[in-house]
Structure formats: C-alpha cells, structure tokens
Amino acid sequence: MDRLNRLQALTGDAYICGEESAFQPFVLPMPKPQHLYEGTDSDDDEVIISRGRVILGNANENFNPSAIQSGINTRPNEFPKYDLQLGEPAADGESFCPFQTVKKYPYAYIGTTNRQRVAASFFDQGKLFDQTWDFFYLYRASLDTNQQPILLVPTKQLEHFLEIINRSLNTSLTIPTGGTNGGFQVIFENNGTPQPRYLGRSTDREMADRLKDNIPPRYYRPGGAPPSPKEPSDRSLEAFQAKINLMVQAQKGKKVAHKEKQKKERIERQHSWSQAIKRVQRYLGLREIRQGHLEAIRASLEKSGLEWGDYDAAVKAAAAKLPPTTSFHSGQPARFEQEASVVFVCVDVEAYERNTKLITEIGIATLDTKDIASVVPGEGGVNWMSCIRARHFRINEHKHLNNFEFVAGCADRFEFGASEFINLKDAPHIIASCFKYPFSKPEETTSGHDEQPKRNVILVGHDIGADINFLKTIGYDIHNLSNLLETADTAFMWRYLKRETNPRNLGSILAELGIIGWNLHNAGNDAVYTLQAMVAIAIKHIEEKHKAKEVREQEKKARMMEALREATEFAMEKDEGWSSEGSDGGVAAAPAPPSGSKGKKGADFQSRGKHSEGPWRPEEHRGQIGGQRQLWQDPDKAGRPSKSTISGKVAPFTSRPVPLEDYIKKTTPSDDKSTKNGGQRAKTNHATQNKSVPAWLNE
After folding, report:
1. pTM: predicted TM-score of the whole model, two decimal places
2. What does residue 436 show for φ and ψ, rounded to 5 degrees?
3. Is the C-alpha dihedral spanning 529, 535, 538, 542 positive or negative?
4. pLDDT value, residue 153
5. Which residues, at least 6 apart from 375, have a Cβ–Cβ distance to it below 8 Å?
6. Are the beta carbons of 442 and 417 closer than 8 angstroms?
7. Cα dist from 259 to 109, 149, 266, 333, 496, whole Å
C-alpha cells in the first residue's frame, strides 16, 4: 500500500489531494459590495414561511474572502432575511432580542479569555453595524411611563452572527439562556398587546442611525390598516410587561449581572456570619448539636402522598414542634454539651503608626471551655468572662515607639496582669507556646505537657485578617497549626446581630454590650475585650431570638423607618437650591469670562444627531433609497444644515452658504497674543472647530 492509500485508509476520506473526486470542488465566489443590498436573484434559494416571508438567502451571498482573517461578513450558513413592509407585524412565534443587548454581548456574556478577541474583531469601532440586520421596533404598553420604543433584531440573525464569529475565531459562542438571559429569546403573542413591527434593513452604521431616528408613531399601520380590535386582558398585559422587564434587564448586561453577583455574595457572607455565631454557641454549650433531624422528618413524610407545597409545609410544621435548640439562663450552667472541647485563643497585634512593619505589642487572651463547663454564666456571661486569662508582650527593639497621632497608644497600661518584654527573634516561639497546653498559664510547670492530648483551637479576633498578617511579618504563620479548627471574627458577628452593613470598631461594640473597655489600643486589653465581646454577642443573639414576635416586628419597623428617614433627608438635600419660587429673576448678572473648558453648546448641538429630523413624516413625503423607503428629507431641500468641506476639514453646519474668504477671515486669529505658541494654537483651533458652532454664523 502506497502512502496515498494509507492516508486514505487512516482518514476514511476517499478524496485526497492528487485524486479526482465525484464531487465538484469548492469555488470561491466573487465578492459583492458589503454595504449594498441588491435583493435576491432568481438563482437564490428562497423559502417563504408564514406571513413574515422569511427568506433564507444563499450561503455565499455577500461573502468576502478577506473576511476570513478580519472576521467581517462571513456567511457560514444561510442568512435569514425578512421581506416585510414598514410597520408590518412580525410573524407569530418569531423570537427577538434588543439590539442594545447585542451591542453589549462580548462585554457582558463572554469570559476574559475570548472577550478582547471577539470585541476587537466584530464589535469595536462600529464593526457590529457592518453586518446585515433587519430591525423591528416595539412600543411599550400605553400606561408605561417610558414610551421610548425598543429596537429589536430577530434571534435567528443573532445566532447567524455568532456562527460567523465561531467560524472565524474558532470559538463556541451561543445565546445565553435562563434568568435574565431569557431576554435574548422573547416571543410576543398577538393578543392585543403591542407587537414587534418591521422597521427596515441596515448594512452600515449610517443606515441604522437613520432607521432608529425615524421609527413610525404608535398609530401607524401599513396601507392605512385599522388598529387591532383585540383588547388585551389583565393577564396578557402582565405577561407583556414581564417580557419588557426581561429585555430591559438583558440590555443592562454586565451591570445587572454584576449586581446579581454582588447580591449573591452578600447573602452568602451574611449566611456565613450567622453560621459562625451558631457554632460559637455550640462550642459554649448554648446551642444543641442536631444532626439529621430534618432528614428524619422528611423520611417520615415520604409516604404521606402530599403534594410538594403541602410536603414542605408539613416539614416546617414538624420542625417547629421540636424543642428549642438554644437555651441560656444566667443562673444555671450551660444546658447542652460543649462541642469539640475547644479553646478560644484571641490575638491582637499593635504596630507603629508610621511604619506598620514595626510590631510593638502582641496580646493573647485565652478562654478554655473546660474551665466554664460547670460555671454559672451570670448576667450577660460575666462569670465566664472572668475565666479569661491574658498575656501582653512588648517587643524590646520597638518599646520606645508609641502611637499618639492616629490612635492613643497605651502600651504601659495593661489591665489584666504584668506586661512581658521579649526580643523580636523570640516572638514566634513564645506566640506558638500560647496555642499549646497550658494555654497561657505561665504559673504552671511544663512537666507532663507531652502527655496532654491536643485540643481544638478557635482563633478569635476583631478584623482577624489584619492580625494574622501582622503575625506573619514577625515569622509566625497561624495556618501551620494542625489543631486550628476555624476562626471567629467579632466584627462580622456583630454586623449580623445588628443587621449592619458597615463594620464597627471594638470600642463602640463594647459600649452597646454594656462592657466598660479601659485603655483600648493596648494589645493585651484589646485581646481580652474581644473575647468578652464574643461571649456577649453569642448570648445576646439567643436573648433576642427569644423575644416575642411582636417586639421583633416593632424593631424591624423601626429599622425600616430609620432607613426611610435617612433616604428622605438625602433626597431633600439633593433638591435644595433648585427651587426659585417667589423670585422675579433679580438683577442682571454680567456674563462670566470663558474658563477655557469645552462649552456645552457644541456638545448639545452634536448630541441632537446628524440624522435627527424632527417628527416622523407620512409616506407621501418620503423618497426611495437603496430599495427601502427613505424616512427623512433631503437636508438641503428642507432648509436643514448642510456640510461644506474646506481644505479637507468639515466646516460647521450652516443653513446659508459661507464664502471661503469670510470663513478664513473669521477663523484666523489676528491678535498677536492669540498667536502665541503659533503651531500649538493652530492645532487647537483645528481640533475644536467641529465641537461648537461659531457665534458669527448666527449673526
């Protein structure tokens, strides 16, 4: 077997280069102009479907051989076209998506790997408008406050466009589905609600702008046909409004997606804060450890034959009948078993305010759950707080540094014992000893420590991430502890307890908990007070849960009223200064000298758009252009501004001819001061002459 036959056997392809095939070879067709719609030839394959007369054009139409590299106007499959009159409704069952959503597709719905490639090849610099699009317009419900029509394109054409991109860039882009992404495939029914109506075909940016600026009014019907006699039902109007809202959300694209992502992350964070409080309660013996109780309830109801809604209600009702999972009595020891027999170790680090790499103090406080297992907690857990032991270390090399500019440092005022001075090189070893038995009990001997079993450690802190990073700077990484079970952050626990969006400092939390904090910003004191706050928050969470439902509802309403009051004050502050009632205008004010910044007049003039031609004109006042009805008047014939080209530059718009000599005379500076830095000034004049209208044109 020769090499050619072997290659045929391996590939399974009978046609290999060098042999003739029964099939005709592919012949590259001659390219046609990209921006010229010539209609369909008699040789094209046409399929007419329903009233919409969707024409599937030849796959080779408008094929550009150079587009394989540039990614513009390739036609891998048949392109769906629409042979409709202006204002004619779309066929039943046709799905649409807002064109604004198509424009944002690469930036909102493509990952970072391919986003730049797709945007640069097919979207940026107006490349999107170089494709052929059949535009439809859709008016909103008559009672909608926003009466701006929505510009739509058929979903089929978007799918075809994505096929072009996939073929050119070897990607696998598809139309997003589900959630707000349903705005890519919206179908409108003929039930009396507004329907998408044909606007026209566009092959470039200019045609698209003209079509958009000349959308017919709501009452227009082709051939003077009467409006639909159907009256939409309330249910139909609700469904229609839901589709409009879906498209509006899809148009917002990345912003909505980012907002939804932020909302999801916020809910997850708040849920994790709630779970952290409940686990601390289990460690302290304030909450019962329950595992599998919901599974047991569901298993008992599996054969009940209830519907899904009734089944969920029955599960909730059965769970509500279970005894309470939390219990706190200030005069009795903890009711439930302490989970995991943990040791809470709180760390607080103080650094020099002018150089945070210089660690000045380290405070470590410890609460062993074994020490409080049989202790009566007292009011607010005060007896448990007395079982906290603390150590305060000061770094010899930095003991001369004291904070006083940003915070009031008090390194020499440790309230819970005597401070210990250590060398910086010994700090990692000494810190590590506090996470081992006897857990900050310096008075005990070290004999028999090796026989003690390892205890689970919970690292506690207020904004614990900062303290962990400070410890790393002196050579101790808390994550190397094999018995570190988890961390508990009192800043997050308090935010969940009070439903607050912003974090609080330790001092304000202590004040609300009724704990007096002496000499804060001493590392040893802060460590003790943080552990006290953790205990108090765990207890207060239970007490607030046991409040009457009416009290909780009143507190919720109070929070809502406070938020409403703040929003009202903010709105009133923004509105201040805009009202001028009781004034007749006052004394004439002299015009202010020019500030040199770009004026708004030229910007407002340009913002009206070069194709903004006023109200829509009936059919008898429109001409023909490119096979489509011209929806605007000739600017010269209508007395609209026209353009004059001078030396390759576009002159400002004017409604009367301007002699070349007058234009040069008026735009050439004659004052010596104005020609200072000659070339630079001239450059500025050319750069800004199209951004505003010269005053002499209005003389």
Report:
1. 0.52
2. -125, 165
3. negative
4. 93
5. 333, 383, 384, 387
6. no
7. 14, 26, 10, 46, 21
